[in-house]
Amino acid sequence: MTTPALDDRDGHIWLDGRFVPWRDARLHVLTHGLHYGGGVFEGERVYDGHVFKLTEHSQRLHDSARELGFSIPFSVAELDGATLELVARQGIGDGYVRPVAWRGSEQIGVAGAGTSVHVAIATWEWPHVFSADAKNSGIRLGTSRWRRPAPDTAPVRAKAASLYNICTLARDAADAAGFDDALLLDYRGLVAEATGANIFLVAGEELHTPTADCFLAGITRATVLDLARELGIRVVERDVRPEELGGFDECFLTGTAYEVQPVRSIDAHEYTVGRTTTALKEAYTGLVHTTNRTAALR
Asked: Quick check: helix, strand or coil at residue 14?
């Protein structure tokens, strides 16, 4: 069965403070955010009808907008409330939430001052990014020619739509080459992240992850770091050079959509889905469901 396009579905989307029919959630072609990249967004997961770490995501939407020089016209609490009501209206059990904010169409020019700010939230059923088999056996990454920019050349602390042009180019090239995703290096040539997820590598009893100084340090990344410490796994945040990739035993990605996703190879380097990856994957799965069961009892 063909999945309907995202602009042709039933239900509602929350747009600028009210619920509108899904197909009526529109914006003008001269919207500033469309032409000049003045937009930020979030990705949130729904488990058992509840949104995991919702307030952290709503706060990050505000923080990202601030990095781009505009303010969200709805409070974190208002965004939380709208999201929860939307998820209930749409009857989402396990799915995805996409909040997005952008500059409006009052003017067409590089300067963004004076433009209005619009906010929308949509949600839909979406169980996994990759197949069930890949979720267990791992995915294949190919190193991209595209790199994450330096902090003084782009708003790297924001989840900004404009920064994902690099990810789209990298992912499309990876797909064409037969990989599942791409590994991006940073402007210095250091290992950075995948196109939509942070990367972790395991060497013996240690968990290594790149220092997040020029890419977004994800909420799932922080969650997994906490879980690793709780499990007694030694965590090392440091610069990781691509020539080191062959010296690791395991590799996995983390992200709201990816969750904890094992990696079986990067280019010619192969990894096992070993004890550390499995333990953290199981701990994360247990956490998201336990947290939401606890929330349901409040």
From this structure: strand
The crossing angle, in degrees rounded to 10, of helices 219-230 and 54-67 is 130
The yes or no reply on domain 12-125 and CATH 3.30.470.10 is yes
- State yes or no: is 53 an active-site residue: no
Q: In the block, which residue shows the tokens 């972790």?
A: 200
Angle 20-126-162 from CA coordinates, rounded to 5°: 70
Q: Distances from the Cα of 258 to the Cαs of 15, 128, 180, in angstroms?
A: 26, 7, 12
Residue type, 135: K
User: Residue 97 to residues 5, 62, 86, 122, 125: CA-CA distances in angstroms?
Assistant: 16, 16, 9, 6, 9
Could you state, in order of their start, the residue ranges of all structural domains in the chain? Answer: 12-125, 132-289
* Strands 139-148, 181-186: pairing kind: parallel
What the block records as the tokens of 185 is 């290096």
Sequence-separated (6 or more) residues with CB below 8 Å from residue 11: 21, 22, 89, 90
Summarize pLDDT for 24-39 with one digit per residue, the tens: 999 999 999 999 999 9
**Full-model pTM:** 0.94
Catalytic residue, from 53, 135, 159, 281: name it. Answer: 159
The model's pLDDT over 203-226, given as tens digits with 9 standing for 90+, comes to 999 999 999 999 999 999 999 999
Q: How far apart are CA 182 and CA 180, in angstroms?
A: 7
Q: b/e map of 132-156 (b: 16 or more CB within 10 Å)?
A: eebbeebbbbbbbebbbbeeeebbb
Rg (CA), the chain: 19
Phi, psi angles (nearest 5°) of residue 120: -135, 155
- Tokens, residue 46: 């729904």
Its CATH class, for the domain covering 132-289, is alpha beta
